[in-house]
Design the sequence.
């Protein structure tokens, strides 16, 4: 997938030393196949408060994975 490498590169921003508070990934073709990278990165970040995932191609299976992580 062309978006997979870019997704992995972008999610390096979620390093535990990063103080990212707001992230807008809308209109980026993440899809369910890249949710695993997003989830792995979110586990390290303790400062993120808002994230926009509109029009990313994440469907119900990916949304369920994210929801379970955010519980």
Sequence:
């Amino acid at each position: 997938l062309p978006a997979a490498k870019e997704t992995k590169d972008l999610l390096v921003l979620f390093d535990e030393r990063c103080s990212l508070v707001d992230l807008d990934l809308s209109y980026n073709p993440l899809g369910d196949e890249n949710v695993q990278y997003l989830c792995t990165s979110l586990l390290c970040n303790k400062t993120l408060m808002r994230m926009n995932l509109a029009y990313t191609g994440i469907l119900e299976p990916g949304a369920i994975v994210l929801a379970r992580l955010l519980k």
Q: What stands out?
A: Strands lie at 22-24, 50-52. The chain has a mean pLDDT of 81. The radius of gyration is 11 Å. Helices lie at 2-10, 35-44, 60-70.
